[in-house]
Amino acid sequence: MGTADLIPGISGGTIALITGIYKDLLASIDSLNYKNLSLIKGGNLKKLWESINGDFLVTIFSGIIISILAFSYLIDWLIKNQPIQLWSFFFGVLITSIFFLKKLVFNWNFYSTIFLIIGILISYQLTSLPLKADDTTLLYLFFCGIMGSIAMILPGISGAYIFLILGVYQTLLNSIKMITKVWSSFNWDIFTETFLILSVTGLGFIIGLRIFASILKNLIEKYNDKTMPLLIGLMIGSLQKIWPWQEIVNINLNNEKYLYSKAILPSTYEGNPEILTSLIVMITAILLTIFLGSKNLTLKK
């Protein structure tokens, strides 16, 4: 999930769905409420830990944080130097996971189809927005954290891509890389600035995650056959954004520079399309996703 959240195009929520932990994740985040947290006053920490599924939450979020810190340099390098292979891998993951997740809709009907279409349209429009230049005021970063958390928990809409749209992706990625330098070289000169950027964004992220996880959990419990098609639609609509072959266009809006990327055919790609390599990577991703999905179904049985 942490690695996926670094990449503008695939959501950590998608990985959670594929691996079968999505509903548990929503329920555990939702359990961080006043009733359970009030157990701290009585010193009943064991009951609190059990009520919030503490082992699960610590395991998931420590894995997310460690992978973000560990792979920030690698993902940045892959985006800049091996974009076709990177997008080929996650395109394979996403398109295969869609076929697995349709099994989570128990009774597919007319309304399910409508919500599927709504999800596709929302995701397609969001992932077609031009990318803004970096903007790093603290209040704006707090707002970006809230929006990023909503995108992270939603399958299909990438939190990293939302950060790109809002113009803070490179700022946050650089700050993550700087934090790793602080710990490795004890360069505390950069600590204050990077800590402030990440803590303010993180605060917005935590608040947004807590609120939206509860909303999404209730929607799935009460309206599963409408909510799941919507989530699947969000994934389908984002496919065009992680299509391996993209054309980058510079545009000006209101005297501000924006970048816009659009999916194109490999034959019209400027440069080496690397079709054979991308197909091998895509097939590998498909087989890996099938393995994870099958393992998840086996565990449920």
Tell me about this structure.
- By secondary structure, the chain is mostly helical.
- It has one domain.
- The protein is 69% helix and 6% strand.
- It has 14 helices and 3 strands.
- It has helices at residues 2-6, 12-18, 22-30, 34-37, 45-51, 54-81, 83-101, 110-126, 138-153, 159-166, 169-185, 191-222, 224-237, 275-300; strands at 131-132, 246-253, 256-263.
- It has a 3-stranded antiparallel sheet with strand order 1-3-2.
- A hairpin with a 2-residue loop joins β2 (246-253) and β3 (256-263).
- α12 packs across α13 (224-237).
- The longest helix is centred in the C-terminal third of the chain and has 32 residues, at 191-222.
- The radius of gyration is 20 Å and the shape is globular.
- Residues 297-301 have low confidence and may be disordered.
Summarize the structure.
A 3-stranded antiparallel sheet has the order 1-3-2.
Attribute tags:
mainly alpha, 301 residues, single chain
Q: Would you identify the regions where 5 or more consecutive residues have pLDDT less than 50?
A: 297-301
Q: Tell me the helix content.
A: 55-70%
**What is the beta-strand fraction?**
5-15%
Alpha-beta content class: mainly alpha
Rg (CA only): 20 Å
Number of domains: 1
The averaged pLDDT comes out at: 82
Major pleated sheet: 3 strands, antiparallel
According to DSSP, the number of beta strands is 3
Order of helices and strands: HHHHHHHHEHHHHHEEH
CA distance, first residue to last residue? 24 Å
Q: Give the overall form.
A: globular
